Amino acid sequence: MALMEGRVEPPVYLGPDELARLYSVEDFESLARERMADAGYRYVAGWAGTGETVRMNREAFGRWVLRPRALVDVSTIDPSTTVLGQPVSLPVLFAPSALHRLAHPDGELATAAASVAADTVMILSTSASATIEEVAAVARDPWFQLYWLTDRELTRDLVQRATAAGFRALCLTVDAPVGGWREGELRYPVPLDATCRAANLPDVVEVETRLTWSSLDWLRSISPLPLVLKGIMTAQDARLAVDHGAAAIVVSNHGGRQLDWAQASLDALPEIVDAVGGQLEILTDGGVRRGTDVLKALALGARAVLIGRPVFWGLATGGAAGLGAMVELIRGELVSAMALTGATTIADVGRQLVSPRF
Ligand SMILES: Cc1cc2nc3c(=O)[nH]c(=O)nc-3n(C[C@H](O)[C@H](O)[C@H](O)COP(=O)(O)O)c2cc1C
Question: What is the pTM of this model?
Answer without folding.
Answer: 0.96
